[in-house]
Each structure stands twice: as structure tokens, then as C-alpha cells.
Amino acid sequence: MRGSENSFSFAEVRFFGICAGLCFCLVPVSAETLSSAWEHLVSTNPALRSAEARVESGRAAVDAVNASWYPRLDLTGSYQYQSETSKMKIVIPAFMEGMDDVTIDKSLEDHDKAEVGANVSYVLFSGFSETRAAEAQEASLKSTETSYLQTKNTLALRFGLLHYAIQSARISLRLEEARFSARKAHLGVLEKRTDSGVSTSAQTLSAVAELARASADTAEAHRKLDSLYQEFESFVGVPYPEEAPPELPLVDSDSSLRSLEAEALEQRADAFLKQGAATQGGAYPQISTYVGYRYGNPGLNLTGNEWMGYAVAGVQAKWNLFDGFERKASAVRYRAESKSLRAQAEELRREQGASLKELDLDDRASSVERQSLVSGLEAAQAAQKAYTTALANGTATPDDLRDADLLVADMESRLELWKIREAVRQLQRLWKSGRIISYGEDGQ
Hints:
By secondary structure, this protein is of the alpha+beta class. It has helices spanning 10-26, 34-44, 46-66, 129-196, 201-236, 260-279, 326-393, 398-432; strands at 72-81, 87-92, 102-107, 112-125, 250-252, 286-297, 308-318, 437-439. It has two domains: 34-44 and 126-283 and 323-439, Outer membrane efflux proteins (OEP); 73-125 and 285-318, no CATH class.
């Protein structure tokens, strides 16, 4: 029954709860800043999650190898049934002349035997194989961790390049829109002049063609920017922040020159060498000790039929003298693998050096380009100012001033694009230098 007109049934409450949940789920995930977009990428990117899982697996492998340093505790149990009973025959020699030997011939009654117990065992010596195996896993873990950093750094590079591509596309779109507005205004003026007989129809048709070209260029700039927005959202998982500043909030935590990819290969090479050394432990005696307790029926009294408890202790030794050259083949294999990885690492370091030298050449060319752009902008601004004065004096036309305005906008855009290209080169230099790249709070 309803308590009042304003009360709701359980079904109605559940219905509204489901609707509210669906509405919450349909709200798109967004990022207000570049740093929050970066954090979302780091927390959701499948490649990075896979690299994190490999690091976790490597740490577990190290723990598994280090387990050999601890004693092992085992519970044992066995049961055996045999169709015939065991027999015991003892001959006691005569101790006086004239007497016969005494023979004790007894058949044990039990057809089965049961035993339970516990053992504590510990390896005393294994030819240092445990030590080498632990060192190999540690080196393998370092390689996995370095590969994780390389994966994250590559994501940071792509994130930054996409940001700068979007900023460049925004500048290009702004310039194309300015050109379109100028062409549209110019066409309006020509149409009025044509109606009054000052301009010809050919000039008007030419302006129409220029406006159509400007419209197509603007549409293409819009398409390129929209495509970059879509690529960013597909890569990061959230839309590009509309209020993102042109500069990236870079956090550079390392100043040393390194090659993460080459380091990972060298660490794997080191792991192979140590793994090869671990296999050579089989050439030495393997010695272990154990203590335990047994509870069996029959126990040590073979003629009895009752349960008996007793302690055991001992040392076991095993020495393999021939294994079909397995250890030798393993050593050759691991050395070859290590040699191959080190050669790959050396090649990567050479490529890194060449890439950094190429960036140095780009920096010198970029400096010359900036000087030219600054000089060009100053000249365009001076011309704009001169045409403004000339138009007021009647010695220049509005078309002259329009062209001067477009030239200033073009030079300003070129200088902005140069700054973005410079930022891209800085980002690429950080990445190629093996510096750890991350992004903090915008504006910090």
C-alpha cells in the first residue's frame, strides 16, 4: 500500500536509479587540461598496461628464483600393497664343534605398508647456479623496467607531437579564415564598383575565383584540424582540451644522455650471460641436507604390525659427470644471444648519435629561418603602417592596405609556426636523448 501520494514503490525507485546510472554512463569522459589528458592516457593505454604487467611478472620471477635460498618443508605420504609377503632368512653359524648352524626363516605377515611424514630440506651447494639464476632474473627485470620507460616515453612523444600538430592546424585555419574574410570583403567592393562602372566584370570574376579558392583552403584547414582532433581522442581516450595553451607542460626529470632501447637490449644481453653461467652449475656436485619424521606401519620393526614413529636425517650428494654436452650447447647459445643483442644496442647508439647531429644542423638552419621571419614581419608591419597613412592621404587604395594586412597576418602565422617547430625539435631531442618525458600541471 502507498503511505502517501508522494511516496514511490520499490519498482519506481529502481527504474529511476537505472535511468540515472545510464545517464551518468553516457556522459563523455573529458579532460580540462593537457596534464589531465596525459594522466588519462597513462592510466588507460593498453600498450602501457601490458608493459606494466610484464614488469609485475618480472618481479614475481625474481621472487620465485630467490625462493631457492629458503629451506623447503614437505609433507609426504605413501601406501604400498604387494601380493606376496616379505620373507626374512637368517643363518646363525654354530659356535661349537658338533653343533649345526641355526636358521631362522620367517615370513612377514603384512602385505601392505603405509607411511606418512614431514621433511625439511636445504641445498648446501649447487655450483652457484642459484646465485647466477637470481642475477639473471634481476638483469631481466631491469630490461623489462627500461622497456616500460621506453614505451611510456614513446607515448609522451606522440602525445606532444599531436598537441603541436593541432596547434599548427589551428594557426593555419586562423590564417585561411582571415584570407577568406579579406577575399569576401574585396569581392563585395568590386561588385559595387562594377555596378557603378569603375571596375570590370573580369575583375569581379577573378575575385569570385579567388574567394572560391580561399573557401576551399579554409574547408581543407577545417578538415585537417577535425582529423587531428579525432586522432587525439582516439589515441588518448578523451577530447582535446579546448583551452589548451600552445606550450606543453613538460616535466623533464633526467638530464643524462642515454638510449632506453639500447639499455634494455644490453640488460637482456647481461641476463643471457648470467643465465648461461647458471646452467654451468650442473658441472659441480649438488649437495643437500634434510631432516624429517616418519610414522609408518610397519615401522623399523619389520616383523611387527603396529605403527611406529621415528626421525631421519641425512645428506644427499649428486654429481652429473656426462649430460650429452647439454651444458656446453647452452653456454654457446646464451653467449650468441648476448652477442646479438649487444650488436643491436651498438647500432641503436650509432643511430642516436646521427639523429642528434641532424637535430644540431636543424637548429642552425632554424636560427637563420627565425631571423628571416622576424625581418620579414618587421618589414610587413612597416608596409602596413605606410599603406594606412597613404590611404588616409589618398595615395593608396583599400586593396593595397588589404594586401598589407594579409601579409602581416601571414608573417605572424609563419613566426608562430616556427615557434611550434622549435618546440617539436626540443621534444624530439629529449626523446632521442633518452630523457624521461612527462607532463605536469599546465602553466607550471
